[in-house]
Amino acid sequence: MDNYLVEILATTTKLFALMTPPAVLSAFLSGTKQYDEPQRRKTALKTSCAVFIIGIVLFFFGNAMFSVFGFTLDAFRIGSGALLFITAVTLMNDSPEKNKIHSDDDDISVVPLAIPLCMGPASIGTIIVMGTSSVGIMQNLIGALSLLIASSGIYAMLLCAKSIAKVLKNTGIAILSKLTGLLISAIAAQVVFTGVAAFLK
Predict the structure, then answer these.
(1) Mean pLDDT throughout 176-183?
(2) Transmembrane ranges (predicted)?
(3) Alpha carbons 122 and 7: distance in angstroms, whole number
Protein backbone atom coordinates (compact mmCIF):
# COMPACT_ATOMS: atom_id res chain seq x y z
CA MET A 1 0.00 0.00 0.00
CA ASP A 2 2.82 2.41 0.90
CA ASN A 3 4.43 1.79 -2.50
CA TYR A 4 1.18 2.68 -4.24
CA LEU A 5 0.84 5.89 -2.21
CA VAL A 6 4.40 6.90 -3.05
CA GLU A 7 3.78 6.19 -6.74
CA ILE A 8 0.55 8.23 -6.71
CA LEU A 9 2.34 11.13 -5.01
CA ALA A 10 5.26 11.02 -7.46
CA THR A 11 2.99 10.78 -10.52
CA THR A 12 0.70 13.55 -9.26
CA THR A 13 3.65 15.86 -8.62
CA LYS A 14 5.03 15.20 -12.09
CA LEU A 15 1.67 15.81 -13.78
CA PHE A 16 1.02 18.97 -11.78
CA ALA A 17 4.43 20.36 -12.74
CA LEU A 18 3.81 19.53 -16.40
CA MET A 19 0.61 21.59 -16.27
CA THR A 20 2.84 24.68 -15.79
CA PRO A 21 0.97 26.16 -12.80
CA PRO A 22 2.84 29.52 -12.82
CA ALA A 23 1.82 30.19 -16.43
CA VAL A 24 -1.78 29.11 -15.75
CA LEU A 25 -1.94 31.26 -12.62
CA SER A 26 -0.68 34.36 -14.45
CA ALA A 27 -3.08 33.83 -17.36
CA PHE A 28 -6.02 33.23 -15.02
CA LEU A 29 -5.31 36.41 -13.04
CA SER A 30 -5.06 38.57 -16.16
CA GLY A 31 -8.02 36.95 -17.93
CA THR A 32 -10.46 37.16 -15.03
CA LYS A 33 -9.82 40.72 -13.86
CA GLN A 34 -13.31 41.81 -14.86
CA TYR A 35 -15.01 38.70 -13.44
CA ASP A 36 -16.97 38.62 -10.20
CA GLU A 37 -16.26 35.88 -7.68
CA PRO A 38 -18.90 33.37 -8.94
CA GLN A 39 -17.53 33.73 -12.49
CA ARG A 40 -13.99 33.11 -11.27
CA ARG A 41 -15.07 29.97 -9.41
CA LYS A 42 -17.00 28.74 -12.45
CA THR A 43 -14.00 29.35 -14.73
CA ALA A 44 -11.68 27.53 -12.31
CA LEU A 45 -14.04 24.54 -12.14
CA LYS A 46 -14.51 24.33 -15.93
CA THR A 47 -10.75 24.55 -16.46
CA SER A 48 -9.94 21.73 -14.04
CA CYS A 49 -12.77 19.54 -15.43
CA ALA A 50 -11.52 20.10 -18.99
CA VAL A 51 -7.96 19.21 -17.96
CA PHE A 52 -9.11 16.00 -16.27
CA ILE A 53 -11.33 14.90 -19.18
CA ILE A 54 -8.61 15.58 -21.76
CA GLY A 55 -6.04 13.79 -19.60
CA ILE A 56 -8.23 10.70 -19.07
CA VAL A 57 -9.02 10.40 -22.80
CA LEU A 58 -5.31 10.65 -23.69
CA PHE A 59 -4.31 8.26 -20.90
CA PHE A 60 -6.68 5.47 -21.90
CA PHE A 61 -7.03 5.99 -25.66
CA GLY A 62 -3.81 7.76 -26.65
CA ASN A 63 -2.16 4.43 -27.48
CA ALA A 64 -4.50 4.16 -30.47
CA MET A 65 -2.29 6.83 -32.05
CA PHE A 66 0.59 4.36 -32.18
CA SER A 67 -1.33 1.90 -34.33
CA VAL A 68 -2.78 4.67 -36.53
CA PHE A 69 0.49 6.51 -37.20
CA GLY A 70 2.82 3.52 -36.94
CA PHE A 71 5.46 4.92 -34.57
CA THR A 72 6.89 3.17 -31.52
CA LEU A 73 6.56 4.05 -27.85
CA ASP A 74 10.30 4.74 -27.59
CA ALA A 75 10.18 7.17 -30.52
CA PHE A 76 7.28 8.95 -28.85
CA ARG A 77 9.21 9.09 -25.56
CA ILE A 78 12.14 10.80 -27.28
CA GLY A 79 9.84 13.24 -29.09
CA SER A 80 7.83 14.13 -25.99
CA GLY A 81 11.07 14.47 -24.01
CA ALA A 82 12.32 17.02 -26.56
CA LEU A 83 9.07 18.96 -26.16
CA LEU A 84 9.51 18.83 -22.39
CA PHE A 85 12.94 20.42 -22.76
CA ILE A 86 11.41 23.22 -24.84
CA THR A 87 8.73 23.73 -22.19
CA ALA A 88 11.40 23.86 -19.48
CA VAL A 89 13.43 26.46 -21.42
CA THR A 90 10.28 28.51 -21.99
CA LEU A 91 9.52 28.51 -18.26
CA MET A 92 13.10 29.49 -17.42
CA ASN A 93 12.70 32.53 -19.68
CA ASP A 94 9.13 33.17 -18.54
CA SER A 95 7.64 36.18 -16.78
CA PRO A 96 4.11 36.97 -15.60
CA GLU A 97 3.79 39.69 -18.24
CA LYS A 98 4.21 37.13 -21.05
CA ASN A 99 1.21 35.15 -19.82
CA LYS A 100 -1.26 38.01 -19.77
CA ILE A 101 -4.39 37.44 -21.81
CA HIS A 102 -7.18 39.84 -22.63
CA SER A 103 -10.77 38.74 -22.22
CA ASP A 104 -14.09 40.52 -22.45
CA ASP A 105 -16.99 38.09 -22.33
CA ASP A 106 -15.16 35.14 -23.87
CA ASP A 107 -14.84 31.90 -21.93
CA ILE A 108 -11.15 31.33 -21.24
CA SER A 109 -11.58 28.11 -19.23
CA VAL A 110 -10.94 25.63 -22.07
CA VAL A 111 -8.85 27.83 -24.37
CA PRO A 112 -6.27 29.02 -23.43
CA LEU A 113 -6.25 27.81 -19.79
CA ALA A 114 -6.91 24.08 -20.27
CA ILE A 115 -5.40 24.00 -23.79
CA PRO A 116 -2.59 24.83 -24.40
CA LEU A 117 -1.42 26.08 -20.99
CA CYS A 118 -2.29 23.07 -18.82
CA MET A 119 -2.44 20.53 -21.63
CA GLY A 120 0.33 21.55 -23.98
CA PRO A 121 2.32 19.29 -26.31
CA ALA A 122 4.71 18.22 -23.54
CA SER A 123 2.05 17.21 -21.01
CA ILE A 124 -0.03 15.52 -23.72
CA GLY A 125 2.99 13.49 -24.84
CA THR A 126 3.88 12.50 -21.29
CA ILE A 127 0.32 11.38 -20.47
CA ILE A 128 0.13 9.26 -23.63
CA VAL A 129 3.46 7.62 -22.75
CA MET A 130 2.22 6.98 -19.20
CA GLY A 131 -1.02 5.45 -20.46
CA THR A 132 0.73 3.23 -22.98
CA SER A 133 3.28 2.11 -20.37
CA SER A 134 0.65 1.30 -17.72
CA VAL A 135 -0.03 -2.43 -17.43
CA GLY A 136 -2.75 -3.84 -15.19
CA ILE A 137 -5.69 -2.42 -13.28
CA MET A 138 -3.62 -0.94 -10.45
CA GLN A 139 -1.34 1.00 -12.80
CA ASN A 140 -4.35 2.37 -14.65
CA LEU A 141 -6.02 3.33 -11.37
CA ILE A 142 -2.86 5.06 -10.18
CA GLY A 143 -2.66 7.04 -13.42
CA ALA A 144 -6.34 8.03 -13.34
CA LEU A 145 -6.22 8.98 -9.65
CA SER A 146 -3.05 11.02 -10.18
CA LEU A 147 -4.75 12.91 -13.02
CA LEU A 148 -7.75 13.59 -10.79
CA ILE A 149 -5.58 14.89 -7.93
CA ALA A 150 -3.43 17.03 -10.26
CA SER A 151 -6.57 18.52 -11.87
CA SER A 152 -8.01 19.18 -8.41
CA GLY A 153 -4.73 20.90 -7.55
CA ILE A 154 -5.18 23.22 -10.52
CA TYR A 155 -8.74 23.94 -9.34
CA ALA A 156 -7.58 24.72 -5.80
CA MET A 157 -4.79 26.95 -7.11
CA LEU A 158 -7.15 28.94 -9.33
CA LEU A 159 -9.66 29.35 -6.48
CA CYS A 160 -6.87 30.83 -4.36
CA ALA A 161 -5.31 32.76 -7.26
CA LYS A 162 -5.80 36.23 -5.76
CA SER A 163 -4.42 35.20 -2.38
CA ILE A 164 -1.44 33.47 -4.01
CA ALA A 165 -0.73 36.54 -6.14
CA LYS A 166 -0.78 38.79 -3.05
CA VAL A 167 1.71 36.55 -1.26
CA LEU A 168 4.05 35.76 -4.16
CA LYS A 169 3.71 38.93 -6.24
CA ASN A 170 5.28 38.95 -9.73
CA THR A 171 8.75 38.10 -8.41
CA GLY A 172 7.51 35.06 -6.50
CA ILE A 173 5.54 33.77 -9.48
CA ALA A 174 8.64 34.20 -11.67
CA ILE A 175 10.77 32.23 -9.18
CA LEU A 176 8.14 29.48 -9.03
CA SER A 177 8.18 29.36 -12.83
CA LYS A 178 11.96 28.84 -12.83
CA LEU A 179 11.73 26.03 -10.26
CA THR A 180 9.00 24.35 -12.31
CA GLY A 181 11.23 24.63 -15.38
CA LEU A 182 14.08 22.88 -13.54
CA LEU A 183 11.78 20.05 -12.47
CA ILE A 184 10.41 19.61 -15.99
CA SER A 185 13.93 19.54 -17.46
CA ALA A 186 14.81 16.66 -15.10
CA ILE A 187 11.65 14.79 -16.14
CA ALA A 188 12.55 15.42 -19.80
CA ALA A 189 16.05 14.01 -19.33
CA GLN A 190 14.63 10.83 -17.76
CA VAL A 191 12.03 10.39 -20.52
CA VAL A 192 14.60 10.81 -23.29
CA PHE A 193 17.12 8.53 -21.54
CA THR A 194 14.48 5.79 -21.18
CA GLY A 195 13.50 6.10 -24.85
CA VAL A 196 17.09 6.08 -26.13
CA ALA A 197 18.15 3.19 -23.87
CA ALA A 198 15.19 1.06 -25.01
CA PHE A 199 15.80 1.99 -28.65
CA LEU A 200 19.50 1.00 -28.48
CA LYS A 201 18.61 -2.40 -27.03
Answers:
(1) 78
(2) 6-29, 49-69, 113-131, 137-158, 179-200
(3) 21
Taking alpha carbons only, the member of 123, 165, 143, 136 closest to residue 27 is 165
What are the residue ranges of helices labelled H in 62-72?
A: 64-69
Domain range summary for the chain, segments of one domain joined by +:
2-200
Residue-wise DSSP of 88-155:
HHHHHT--GGGG----SS---IIIIIIIIIIS-HHHHHHHHHHHHH--SHHHHHHHHHHHHHHHHHHH
CB neighbours of 92 closer than 8 A, spacing ≥ 6? 177, 178, 181, 182
Which DSSP symbol is given to 56?
H
Q: Which residues of 101-111 are buried (b: 16+ CB within 10 A; e: fewer)?
A: bebeeeebbbe
For residue 5, name the pLDDT band (cuts at 50, 70, 90): very high
Whether the predicted pLDDT of 29 surpasses 90? no
pLDDT of residue 49: 97
CA-CA distance, 25 to 99, in Å (whole number)? 9
> Looking at 25-34, 52-61, 160-169, 182-191, which range is the least confident one?
182-191
| pLDDT greater at residue 64 or residue 54 | 54
Cα separation, 113 vs 50, in Å, equals 9
